[in-house]
Amino acid sequence: MNIHEYQAKELLKGYGAPVAKGVAIMSAEEAEAAAKSLPGPLYVVKSQIHAGGRGKGKFKELGPDAKGGVRLAKSIDEVVANVRDMLGNTLVTAQTGDAGKQVNRLYIEDGADIDRELYCSLLVDRSVGKVAFVVSTEGGMDIEQVAHDTPEKIVTVAIDPEAGVSAANVTEISSALKLEGAAAEDAKSLFPALYKAFVEKDMALLEINPLIVMTDGHLRVLDAKVSFDGNALFRHSDIVALRDETEEDAKEIEASKWDLAYVPMDGNIGCMVNGAGLAMATMDIIHLYGKEPANFCDVGGGASKEKVAAAFKIITADPKVEGILVNIFGGIMKCDVIAEGVVAAVKEVGLTIPLVVRLEGTNVELGKKILNESGLAITAADDLDDAAQKIVAAVA
User: Fold this and answer.
1) Counting C-beta atoms within 10 Å of the first and last residue's C-beta, which end of the chain has fewer, N or C?
2) Exposure b/e, 345-361, CB count within 10 A at least 16 = b
3) Buried b (16+ CB within 10 A) or exposed e, 157-174
């Protein structure tokens, strides 16, 4: 689960991280009062969408010469003008795709005098089984580009989970970022605080880009991107309350209500599977035979008939889907339950596109019998290779 920048900053502020004063608004009428509550005289008006590259983005409605989704303002009147220009319009960035995202929230923040821009993130480094800091002196840039062009400028520091962030860790990170004086002193409290927030809130990613050294020598979190481990959200009702469903695909929201894993993609074949490995194999073989998956919906290991029916409805709600491949290996999941769910869903929503079903495992013969006797236009497959060829041929 992702949250907005202003929410991330408020969360990190609670752990002692240095952030600028700011106010989130959802209507243009709030802009003037929000700006007047800040020190000024420099303000930053920031689009709040779940995507990076906002500053370089363009608003669909404003033309190619308009300013981006992050704007500086030198007066309250300029703040208000920018708010009216941005709010409610569609921002297209490198991460949103051509469709873009509508800006429903803005964050008006006090400006900062920047000396240097740095990069700092925390993530789970599975190669060592620890949370790690990933830092670079090249802040304010796409970290992927830095990794490609100058990988030597990226330093990774893994943290011992028993010891936490040690003084030696802080020294190593500070050295990598070339911090001195007041910034180095700030680092002694900032980096342990970031690690504590990451662990206590079950984050999947904490990215600060940029982390700045201001002209007065101190550090400040200028931007913050935070995502959380969805499997741990049951422990964090305060985090769940921050969820902005307008930033999410409606099908993903519906899937989460049924505890389904749903991932949208760009092809035209919908996939219902059970298990991540089987999902990858299913998508790979669809690609092998010349088509691309439109999505996959993982019903897990022990789904009910109702859960399977819900998954089928979610898949068919995607207008890109021109055919569906159901690929289930029944271990804990029984093939007859899958068959009953598919039949129930087809009877409820109708079937106007090809549907190929491959079942294998527990109660497979019973599952096939249910499908064969349903009277529905369902194509059975003998194995995964056969299933992939049949669905690809059907949507060709």
Assistant:
1) C
2) bbeeeebebbbbbbbbb
3) bebeeeeebeeebbebbb
Q: What is the mean pLDDT of residues 77-95?
A: 94
The residue from 43, 138, 195, 207 that is catalytic is 207
Active site residue 119: yes
> pTM for the complete prediction?
0.81
Mean pLDDT check: name the lowest of 19-33, 66-80, 282-296, 351-365.
351-365
CA dihedral 357, 360, 366, 370 (to 10 degrees): -10
Burial class (CB in 10 A: 0-12, 13-18, 19+), 270: buried
The DSSP secondary-structure symbol of 38 reads S
What span, in angstroms and rounded, lies between the C-alpha atoms of 44 and 38?
11
For the domain made up of 250-395, give the CATH fold: Rossmann fold (3.40.50)
Q: Which member of 119, 195, 262, 322 is catalytic?
A: 119
Please enumerate, by residue number, every residue annotated as part of a binding site for Mg(2+): 209, 223
**What ranges do the domains of the chain cover?**
20-110, 114-238, 250-395
Q: How many Cα atoms within 13 Å fall on the side-chain side of residue 210?
A: 18
Using alpha carbons, select from 50, 96, 18 the residue that is nearest to residue 205. 50
- Asked if residues 226 and 206 have their Cβ atoms less than 8 Å apart, the reply is yes
Chain centroid to Cα 249, Å, comes to: 11
The answer to whether the CB of 367 falls within 8 A of the CB of 330 is yes
CATH assignment of 20-110? 3.30.1490.20
Residue with tokens 């002209």: 215
Return binding residues for ATP: 46, 53-55, 109, 112, 117
- Looking at residue 329, its pLDDT comes to 86
Tell me the binding residues.
46, 53-55, 109, 112, 117, 209, 223, 274, 331-333
Do 107 and 22 form a contact (C-beta atoms < 8 A)?
A: yes
**Which CATH class name applies to 114-238?**
alpha beta
Q: 382 by DSSP, 3-state: which?
A: coil
207 flagged as catalytic:
yes
- Please enumerate, by residue number, every residue annotated as part of a binding site for substrate: 274, 331-333
